[in-house]
Amino acid sequence: MARYVREWFDLESDLRPFYDLAKREILLQKAVRQFYGLRLIGIPNLFEAQC
Questions:
Q1: How confident is the model at residue 15 (pLDDT cuts 50, 70, 90)?
Q2: What is the pTM of this model?
């Protein structure tokens, strides 16, 4: 189960490069402040997406 959660939330990925970019992009600054740390759920395959 832990492996699935890591995959779903892409917990292995380092978000720091994105946050470094977002600091410099005025259009992203507000969203990053409001949703800092938010990770979207990834869908591993088409079958799971249909469920």
A1: very high
A2: 0.65
CA quadruple 27, 31, 6, 4: dihedral, nearest 10: -100
Give the range of the structural domain holding residue 16, as residue numbers without chain letter: 2-50
Q: If pLDDT is split at 50, 70 and 90, which confidence band does 45 have?
A: confident
Structural domain count, the chain: 1
User: What is the 3-state secondary structure of the chain?
Assistant: CHHHHHHHCCCCCCCHHHHHHHHHCHHHHHHHHHHCCCCCCCCCCHHHHHC
CA 14 to chain centre: 10
Q: Which two tokens stand for residue 25?
A: 């992009």
32 vs 45, more confident:
32
